[in-house]
Amino acid sequence: MSDEAPPVVCCDLDGVLWRGDEAIAGAADGVAVLRDAGLRVGFVSNNSSHRVGDVLAKLDRMGVPATDADVITSAHAAASLLAATFARGVRVLVCAGPGVVEALQAVGLTPVSELPADAVVVGFHRGFDFAELDVASRAVRGGARFVATNLDATYPVPGGMLPGSGAIAAAVATASGRSPEVAGKPAPAIVALVRARWGAAGAVVGDRPSSDGALAAALGWPFALVLSGVAGSPTPPGGEPIPEPTPPFVEADLGRLAPRLAAALAPSA
Q1: The whole model's pTM is what?
Q2: What is the pLDDT of residues 37-91, one digit of tens each?
Q3: How many Å apart are CA 55 and CA 29, to the nearest integer?
Q4: Average pLDDT over residues 104-121
Q5: What's phi and psi for 183, nearest 5 deg?
Q6: Which long-range contacts link 231-236 to residues 24+ away (Cβ below 8 Å)?
């Protein structure tokens, strides 16, 4: 048997494991199939709103046990991007959820909700309002570094889509007159985190070609598209079309995809 680490299957969460608080049928079984084949399964999400512990608790409720080492989010990517150039203790205005607060604190930066601030991080959260738009755009106009956790326009939930991080970042960009740096899929910051944690071999499973598919391309890995989230034919309202050329793996959901992916990637005995 080879001593090399097995390939990792990087699974998105929203639209792959669940939609909102509803599990996608067959997804937990799909993860089990991949693990039983000897593959490492990591979870790489552009949703920065939740703390890692909350993500793990939700995975457990969905029948997918996991540990901290199995999860990377765009909050981690945003924090790593800022920590690479800012000293510990620098104030970062958070226009995002608790996951960003946690990630910034973990790298020694100081999350704040009011000015002054040397940077602004914008991510998906349901509490976004005019007051947040005002303070975030004022900070950016004043010279603060502007980071978006990701630019996904929508977020899949039961019955449709919600506005995503990209919609909130667009509001701040419009009000400030500046475009953000992007931290999450498919930007270099999250590519670096995936490579550092899981190595050089793997595949990406996701429902959004513009982020998950582009992450796979940036990593040089195959992309496996599931149609349980934002992509489909015909294109769902607010979603994305199946790209051309068609990805090497396309299935309705992770449960149907997993046996094909396991056969293609599983390490030989």
Answers
A1: 0.96
A2: 999 999 999 999 999 999 999 999 999 999 999 999 999 999 999 999 999 999 9
A3: 18
A4: 98
A5: -105, -40
A6: 231/207, 236/161
CA distance 226 to 220: 19
Q: Can you name the residues that pair with 225 across neighbouring β-strands?
A: 206, 250
For residue 5, the model assigns a pLDDT of 78
- Establish whether 12 is a catalytic residue: yes
Query: Residue 230: CA atoms inside 13 Å, Cβ hemisphere, count?
Result: 26
Domain locations along the chain: 8-74+185-265, 76-182
How many other CB atoms are there within 10 angstroms of residue 233's CB atom? 9
Pairing of strands 22-23, 18-19: antiparallel
Contacts of 57 (CB under 8 A, 6+ apart): none
CATH fold for the domain made of 76-182: Rossmann fold (3.40.50)
Residue 129: partners with Cβ closer than 8 Å, 6 or more residues away: none
CA nearest to 75, candidates 55, 45, 114, 53: 45
CATH 3.40.50.1000 fits 8-74+185-265, yes or no: yes
pLDDT at 195 over 90: yes
SS3 67: coil
Q: pLDDT digit string (tens) for 172-190?
A: 999 999 999 999 999 999 9
Amino acid at 174: T
C-alpha angle with apex 51: 122 to 83, nearest 5 degrees? Answer: 55
pLDDT at 191 over 80: yes
Identify the active-site residue in 3, 14, 21, 118: 14
Q: What are the backbone angles phi and psi of residue 104, rounded to the nearest 5°? A: -65, -45
Cis peptide before 241 (omega within 30 of 0): no
Q: Does residue 189 sit in helix, strand or coil?
A: helix
| 207 catalytic residue (yes or no) | no
Catalytic choice (3, 12, 54, 207): 12
